[in-house]
Amino acid sequence: MSRPPILAALAAPLRTILDAELARGNAIDEVADWPPHCELLIILRRPFATAYPLAPDMTFNAIEDRHYWKSEYHLDGGRQTLACGFG
């Protein structure tokens, strides 16, 4: 999936976080889905630079599992997820 369709499909609250992270030099490592509920999963290379405010219907989880990722922001019950690696 190329970057423009990702940004078009990503909900505004998660896109705001993604844009801030990319501006700080973080990079996208992976774009996928995570069945059965997640339609769009974006994993960043490094941890989030800061804690971001939660929009309505958004949650934050610290996963801390090197098999998966460090932490994540979920939107709409996990329909879209922005996660970060340990990088």
Quick recap:
Helices cover 22% and strands 33% of the residues. By secondary structure, it is an alpha+beta fold. The relative contact order is 0.24.
Radius of gyration: 12 Å
Question: What is the H-and-E element order?
Answer: HHEEEEE
Number of strands: 5
Strand content: 25-35%
Give the CA-based shape: globular
- Side by side, the strands of the main sheet go 1-2-5-4-3
Instruction: Figure out the total of helices.
Output: 2
Rounded average pLDDT: 93
Largest sheet: 5 strands, mixed
What does this structure look like?
Helices cover 22% and strands 33% of the residues. It is an alpha+beta fold and 87 residues long. Strands 1-2-5-4-3 form a five-stranded mixed sheet, covered by helices on one side. A hairpin with a 3-residue loop joins strand 1 (28-34) and strand 2. The model has no long low-confidence stretch (mean pLDDT 93).
Layout of helices and strands, plus pairs?
Blueprint: H1 3-9, H2 12-23, E1 28-34, E2 38-44, E3 58-62, E4 71-75, E5 80-84
Parallel strand pairs: 2-5
Antiparallel strand pairs: 1-2, 3-4, 4-5
